[in-house]
Amino acid sequence: MKNLKYILMVLAGGAMYGTMSSFVKLFYSRGYNAAELSFSQALLAAVFLGIFLLLSRKRGTRNLSKKQVIPLLITGGTIGLTNYLYYQSVSYISASLAIVILMQFTWFSLLLEWGIFRKKPGKPELLTVVFILIGTIMAGNLFYAEKISFSWKGITFVLCSSLTYAIYIVANSRVGKDVNWLPKSTMIMTGSALTIFIVNANTILAVSHFSYEFALIAVFLAVIGTSIPTALFAAGIPKIGAGVSSILMTVELPVAIICATIVLNERTSAVQIVGILIMLIAISAMNYYKSLITQKTD
């Protein structure tokens, strides 16, 4: 199959993203916090991508104009807030519940495009949203909130994370379309690091956790949680298309649940598994429908 390797690239990138919440929650037990973890991840990812950018310029990677830099930095700020808020949420709720609620970005993005760009969602998309919400209630075990790690503070953090993720996706699809993926990714991660630092400057400057262990953790998060997935998506998505890629990237949900079970010993009931399947099918169906619409308009 000609596109098999690109499909595997996108799947691998999504799977790597899916592991992050469990490992971050594990690192909390070592005394670290969301601000320093998300900042170090973004900063090192920006450094790694920046070094790669400098080494790649001789192969034709184009520079950015001043008009392109600011929108990309702002776009990076939204993904920076997404990671920080998401990491913050798992200090209050389970990693499996956090990833389920994060997936609400799929219909948040529809609302944003409707409200900002007047792209009214069709009936199939609205029906999909209903199934996503049903799947969320089942997958999050919200019928039995007393049996799970439930916190309104944690729910608020991850809902805000889901909203900023939707903003990032909408912005990323419209900003820097003609920019090579490498300088674009470098600017986005630079904006991410700057935003996290601005929001959490007091916490980041006050902590004294820097050590050999923390350096290893920061490199792990930057490489596995940001740099490699960014490169895999950049190489794979253009080859197989945004529609198919969006479907493949839903692998983040089951991987996050499986990882939470293995790493954190979080239990998943049969009802939750059915809810996850409903969400995966609904999200895949919505992305497939959107890809068909895009093909017809091209």
Principal-axis shape? globular
Counted up, domains total 1
**What proportion of the residues is helical, as a percent range?**
over 70%
User: Can you write the helix and strand succession as a string?
Assistant: HHHHHHHHHHHH
Structure description:
This protein has 298 residues and is an all-alpha fold. The chain has one domain. 79% of the residues lie in helices and 0% in strands. The protein contains twelve helices and no strands. Helix 1 crosses helix 4 and helix 10 packs antiparallel against helix 12. The chain is globular and about 50 Å long. The mean pLDDT is 83. Pfam families: EamA. Keywords: Membrane, Transmembrane, Transmembrane helix. This is EamA family transporter.
Short synopsis of the structure:
This is EamA family transporter. InterPro entries: EamA_dom, EmrE-like. Helices cover 79% and strands 0% of the residues.
Topology:
Layout (H helix, E strand, L loop, with lengths): L3 H25 L5 H23 L9 H24 L5 H8 L2 H13 L5 H17 L12 H21 L8 H26 L5 H29 L1 H7 L3 H13 L5 H28 L1
Helix pairs in contact: 1-4, 1-9, 1-11, 2-3, 2-8, 2-9, 3-7, 3-8, 4-7, 4-11, 5-7, 6-12, 9-10, 10-12
Provide keyphrases for this structure.
298 residues; mainly alpha; EamA_dom; EmrE-like; transmembrane helix; transmembrane
